[in-house]
Design goal:
This protein is of the alpha/beta class. Helices cover about 30% and strands about 20% of the residues. It has helices spanning about 50-55, 55-70, 90-95, 105-115, and strands at about 10-15, 30-35, 80, 115-120. Helix 2 (about 55-70) packs across helix 4.
Length: about 120
């Protein structure tokens, strides 16, 4: 098992898709993360732990990187985050924008060191 918090030589570029049918086929070396909307209604500003965990792009990126480092999947050179199913993709974009939302633990710092938001479509 490798150090989950180690820094890669170069950050991996991340593209966030905010509307459907932007992309098409994916090439080798591209990992795709699909963000899904909450499965139930909730009051504004309140989120259950299941929805918070499932919708955390930082956790998804960290798990993806660790899976590749451990050899469970091929290493990738780019990530596409499909947030088109979300009613508001602002939270996903804010979590990937440096200085926008604070890091809550070592996992978030590892994501900030190893991934870089390069475009929003």
């Amino acid at each position: 098992m490798t150090d989950p918090y180690a820094r890669l030589a170069n950050p991996i570029p991340v593209t966030v898709l905010t509307r459907s049918a932007v992309g098409g086929t994916t090439d080798d070396g591209i990992a795709v993360i699909v963000m899904e909307p909450s499965r139930h209604d909730r009051a504004a500003g309140v989120e259950c732990i299941a929805c918070a965990t499932a919708g955390d792009v930082r956790a998804a990126l960290f798990d993806l990187l660790q899976s590749a480092r451990d050899g469970h999947r091929p290493m990738f050179t780019r990530v596409v985050v499909d947030a088109s199913a979300l009613s508001d993709s602002k939270d996903v974009i804010d979590r990937l924008t440096p200085g926008k939302l604070p890091a809550l633990g070592l996992r978030d710092h590892a994501v900030a060191k190893n991934f870089k938001l390069v475009e929003v479509l």
